[in-house]
Design a protein that fits this description.
This protein folds into 2 domains: about 220 residues, Rossmann fold, CATH 3.40.50; about 130 residues, Rossmann fold, CATH 3.40.50.2300. The chain is built from 12 helices and 15 strands. Helix 3 packs parallel to helix 4. The protein has about 375 residues and is α/β, with parallel strands linked by helices. Strand 8, helix 8 and strand 9 form a beta-alpha-beta unit. The protein is globular, with a radius of gyration of 22 Å. It has a 7-stranded mixed β-sheet with strand order 7-6-8-9-10-14-15, sandwiched between helices. Bound molecules: (3S)-3-methyl-2-oxopentanoic acid. (3S)-3-methyl-2-oxopentanoic acid (1QQ) binds next to loops.
Length: about 375
C-alpha cells in the first residue's frame, strides 16, 4: 500500500471510531517466561498453555472482535533478564499487560517495574509468600505454598504415619526459601520433629554430603523445598545411598522433569497442586486433549494454569471497552480482573485480595483448593 493510501485508510478508521463504530485492534499481551535454562521445563509448558488459549479465543473471533497477539520473550529464569524483558515489553512493545515471569525469584526483581508503570503483571507459576505484596498490579492464579504445604504435610502424616522428618532446601532462591519457611511452620504446628535441616545452592548437582548427614538421623520422610531438576537429583542420590524414605515436596515437584531424571525412584512422593491430570471435569479433559493434539505431548500443572490465566484475562477484557489510550486501558484491565470467577482446567477459581503490607496496597492471590497427589510408576496420581 502506498503512503497516501495508508494515510487515507488510517484516517477513515479514525473517523469511524470517532463516530462510535468499533474498530478491531490487536490486543498485545506480553509473555515473559524462562524458555531456556534450568527453569525452561516450566516456562515452555507455560508458553504452550497461553498459546493454546489465545489461539482458541482468536479462532472464536477474539475478544469483542479484537485479536489477541502474544509478544513472547525469554527471561531465562534469571532476575536481570526478567527485568530487561519486562522493560522491553512494557515500554517498547507497549503491551497491555505482562504474564510471567516463571520463577518467584525473578518476580521479586521484575514485578516492581510493572507496578511502577501501572501495568498488570500476572504470574501463573509464582507461589512464594510476598509476591502480591509488591503492589496492586500484581495478580497470580498460582496457589501459594502457604495454602498448599500445610495440606500436603497433613496428608503425608496420614499416608505414612510420619513422626520425624529431615528437611532439605535451596537457600538462594525465593521460592525454595519461602517453601522452607512454610514447611517449618507447618511441621511445628503439626508437632512433627525435625531430625536435621540441610541446604544447597542453585546449580548444585551433588547432594551426597547433605544426604549422608540426613541418613544418619533416620527420618521417616524427607521434606524438600526444591525446584524440579534439583529435587530429581536429590531423590536419585537418596536412593543410591540406600535410603527408602518418601519425599514431600511443593509446587516445584510438579513437572515431568522429576520423573525424566528420578524415574520410579520418585515413587511415594507427595505433592499438592490445584491441577491433576486425573481431574475428570469436562474443561480439563478438553484442555488435555487439545494440548496433546497441538504440542504432541501431555500438559502439566504449569500449562494448565497458564491456559486458565489467559481465559481469566479474556473474561476481564470482555467487560472492558478499550479506548485506545494505553494508560487508560491498562487501568481498566486492572479494575476488571478482580471480579473474574472461572472454572477451567484447574477447577473453580477466584481472586483473593492480598492484605496491605508496609503501607503498600496488595495485589491479588489465587483462591483455589489444592489436591494432594502421590507419585506412582513415573507420574502423579490422586
Ligand atoms: C516459584 C515456583 C516454581 C516452581 C515455578 C515454576 O512455584 O518460583 O514460585
Amino acid at each position: 500500500m502506498s503512503y497516501q493510501m495508508k494515510t487515507l485508510v488510517a484516517s477513515a478508521l479514525l473517523a469511524w471510531s470517532a463516530a462510535g463504530v468499533a474498530v478491531a485492534a490487536d490486543i498485545k499481551i506480553g509473555v515473559a517466561e524462562a524458555l531456556t535454562g534450568p527453569a525452561a521445563k516450566y516456562g515452555v509448558a507455560i508458553k504452550n498453555g497461553f498459546t493454546l488459549a489465545a489461539d482458541e479465543l482468536n479462532a472464536k473471533g477474539g475478544i469483542n472482535g479484537n485479536k489477541i497477539v502474544l509478544v513472547v520473550e525469554d527471561e531465562q529464569g534469571k532476575k536481570e533478564e526478567a527485568i530487561n524483558v519486562f522493560k522491553k515489553l512494557i515500554f517498547q512493545d507497549k503491551v497491555l499487560m505482562v504474564f510471567g515471569p516463571t520463577l518467584s525469584n525473578s518476580a521479586f526483581a521484575a514485578d516492581p517495574i510493572a507496578n511502577a508503570s501501572k501495568t498488570v503483571v500476572f504470574g501463573t507459576s509464582n507461589t512464594a509468600d510476598g509476591i502480591t505484596n509488591m503492589g496492586p498490579f500484581t495478580f497470580r492464579n498460582s496457589v501459594m505454598e502457604a495454602d498448599v504445604l500445610p495440606v500436603t504435610t497433613r496428608a503425608a502424616v496420614k499416608q505414612f504415619g510420619i513422626k520425624k522428618v529431615a528437611v532439605l532446601y535451596g537457600n538462594d532462591d525465593a521460592f525454595t526459601k519461602s517453601g522452607y519457611d512454610v514447611f517449618k511452620a507447618a511441621l511445628e504446628q503439626q508437632k512433627i520433629a525435625v531430625t536435621d535441616t540441610e541446604t544447597y545452592a542453585k546449580g548444585d548437582v551433588d547432594f551426597k554430603a547433605q544426604l549422608t548427614k540426613i541418613k544418619a538421623t533416620n527420618p521417616d520422610a524427607i521434606i524438600c523445598s526444591c525446584l524440579a531438576e534439583e529435587a530429581a537429583n536429590i531423590i536419585l542420590q537418596t536412593r543410591s545411598l540406600g535410603m527408602k524414605q518418601p519425599f514431600v515436596g511443593g509446587n516445584g515437584f510438579n513437572s515431568p522433569k522429576l520423573f525424566e531424571i528420578a524415574k520410579d525412584g520418585a515413587d511415594n512422593t507427595l505433592m499438592g497442586s490445584p491441577w491433576s491430570a486425573e481431574n475428570p471435569a469436562a474443561a480439563n479433559k478438553k484442555f488435555m486433549a487439545d494440548y496433546k493434539a497441538k504440542f504432541g505431548g501431555d500438559p502439566d500443572q504449569f500449562a494448565a494454569q497458564a491456559f486458565d490465566a489467559m481465559y481469566i484475562v479474556a473474561e476481564a477484557l470482555s467487560k472492558v471497552k478499550l479506548s485506545g489510550s494505553l494508560e487508560k486501558d491498562r487501568l481498566a484491565l486492572r479494575d476488571a480482573l478482580p471480579a473474574v470467577k472461572f472454572d477451567g482446567a484447574t477447577g473453580k477459581f477466584a481472586f483473593r485480595r492480598a492484605a496491605p503490607q508496609g503501607g503498600k496496597e496488595g495485589g491479588y492471590d489465587a483462591q483455589q483448593d489444592a489436591i494432594v497427589n502421590i507419585a506412582k510408576g513415573g507420574k502423579f496420581i490422586l
